TrEMBL record:
GO terms for cellular component: cytosol. Coiled coil: none annotated. Gene3D superfamilies: 1.20.1370.20, 3.40.50.880, Catalase core domain. Residues 29-417 form the Catalase core domain. This is Catalase.
Amino acid sequence: MSETPKNNENSKQKQLEQFRVNDANKKLTTNQGLKVSEDGLSLTAGKRGPTLMEDFHFREKVTHFDHERIPERVVHARGTAAHGEFEVYESMKPYTKAKFLQDPNVRTPVFVRFSTVVGSRGSADTVRDVRGFATKFYTEEGNYDLVANNMPVFFIQDGIKFPDIVHAIKPEPHNEIPQASGAHDTFWDFVANNQESAHQVMWLMSDRAIPRSFRMMQGFGIHAFRFVNDQGKAHFVKFHWIPKLGVHSLVWDEAEKIAGKNPDFNRQDLFDAIEMGDFPEYELGVQIIEEKDEFAFDFDILDPTKIWPEEDVPLKIIGKLTLNKNVDNFFAETEQVAFHPGHIVPGIDFTNDPLLQGRLFSYTDTQLIRLGGPNFHEIPINKPVCPFHNNQRDGYHRQTINKGKVSYNNNSMAAHTPAPTTEEEGGFVHYQEKVEGSVVQARSESFNDHFSQPKLFWNSMSPSEKQHIIDAFSFEVGRVKDKSVRQQVVDMFANVDLAMAAEIANNLGETPPTAEESTVTKASPALSQENTNKTPVGRKIGVILHNGFHDAEVKDILQRLNLAGVAYEIISDKQGVVTGKSKDDLMVDHTFSTTDPVLYDAIYIAGGKDVNEKFYKNANYFIMEAFKHYKAIGATHDGIAWLEVNQMIESPGVVEGNGKSFVEKFLQDIAKHRHWDRNVV
């Protein structure tokens, strides 16, 4: 006799109670209840081999993670994008047979999406976070996706741990706080107990985590890929995007205020620049290593938590990316675009980087749930420019109307079409690499050094950049409530630099660490933003004017600034126009209440006559904020009095005067981005 539903329920409850244990004694299992012996290493063919699809635990864990949120992306939800084109400077035939890297006369259309990683679609642009820099090349051989970040390393070494790092840095599940921030207990608990994250965390605490603009931000492919030429010879390669405007950042106080004043700051900056015809440009650089030199370095070239220092592996500049068109529809393009590191073309192939191997599964799986099925490639923004043919059919949102009976291979009824393409005809052939070894959950011992490169990064920083890193640690870890976690973080980063960790401990009220000082003395100047390109081009200044300003000279100065590539906005106390002493008018872009000094790279004040107390206070606020954030400040005529009152004359980055010489000096100071030698109290 079958049990009644109630008896069934009671029986199941008894079984659950039988297997229930104390929380402290819980053991990790799969969703089917199978006890798991390893949760930090995916199953590979040998210690340096590829990840195996046989690893059911990895697939279950990542599949569940990929399907956790709809409809926005699990990560990189907050983004903006633009169209453009790519041109190669010289043929890369010795290294790769990829057609889009052969002919300098060919312009390859691209679509680029920039993003933050942690926050939801509604979060702010200027939070401290990693930034995505994903590029889709619409090549004649199919779509190639270079899915990059603005930092060249990642938190983890194996794709099986990706759900863990994202769970840790996302808002804590009991109260969904904090949004778009790593300044909380679970993230730093993860860091302290997964010390392979040390290098990425150093970058995250640096100025790189709060870029001034997407136009002034690098991109890195992170992983080692392969170039393969038409002779079948392979080289290891890493990809870099280098902005022509240089690499520049906000200061933290400024970033926090911008999040309130204009949470769309970076998004609007990119959109406005393209609309004005100031098209952002980035050069593509590659680092190339011969296969015979795979083990020639003091780091593992397949470890995604390591860089290839440019002093060891020089950077070769091979092409240029130009963004020249904004999207027509944000949802249809920016939101529906689907990137995948597995979208490659002949001449580009994978390596056995264990994080890359995990991403090759995860990205397709993510698109299936986010875009509603397997036909996401037919959405216009994802559709290749070259023809595509196969016997795949049906599924959600199918657009192609296939004719005929045949939907399989091999076949005779359709004359064996579509037929495979030989390598000689341009068909993709996987690079043949000898792989042997036991089926294991292990990692090469060469992945075990977690602190030498974070130390190299620290050694490469300027004094101001080092102080910003200390300040960032003090703020982020200072918001951690668990004192044990705070102490663990201090102790962990003593392995990077003892003095740095001691200062952080002092700021947090924790016990200073007692670890041995790191012996790494190597530095890489290319890692410091102090050594980037510095130009006034692409900058925006706020111009403070009142009726009665010296209109002839001010107009001349603004024209000279504009010709040098500097945009400006006129700020006054009222909308409409502001009238000069010779009765020339300038249109007011903003009142003091509709903008803020943190939204500009520099401030120029020319003042005017009969300024009332309210105007004076507002203008003074703009100058003081710009001064506090180390920005260039220029003043002519009546504006000079503001500098004198605030005792700013002769401070670094503060320019007063008139005429051509004033403009030249002001442009030089704008180009420097920040004046760290300024005495700011």
